[in-house]
Specification:
Layout: H1 15-18, E1 24-32, H2 37-51, E2 58-65, E3 72-78, H3 81-88, H4 91-100, E4 104-113
Antiparallel strand pairs: 1-3, 1-4, 2-3
Helix pairs in contact: 2-4
Length: about 120
Amino acid sequence: MTNNFITDRTDNHTSAALSTQGQVMLVNLFTPKEGMLDQFITAQTGEYARLKDLVKGWVGNKLGRAVDGNQLVNVAVFDNLENYTAWRQSQLFAGHLEVIKPFVANSAPGMYQVIYSAGD
C-alpha cells in the first residue's frame, strides 16, 4: 500500500505470510512533520486508548522515540495475521489514519512473526 505518507514494506498476501502462525507484530517507523512530534504522540496514544476494546486480536502496543528525538517507532502485537489483516481493512483503521495523518511526514511499516518474547 503506498499513500501520501505511508510506504508499506509488507505484503501480507504472499504464501509465506499466509502460512504464518501465532502472534505477529507490526513495526512502524514514523517521521512526524516538522514541529509536530508532540501532537503526533498525543494523537497516537489517544488512539491506543480509544481503540483498546474495539480491535479484535489486538494484544497491545509500544511507542518509542529515537534518542535524537527525530523519529518514533510503534510496535503493535496481534494474536494472528488474520486479525491484523481484518483491522487493516476496517473502517476503524481508516478512521485511525485520518486522526494521525495530519502529523506524519512519513511512515514505514513492516510485519513480523513473533518467534520469541520475554518480559512484558
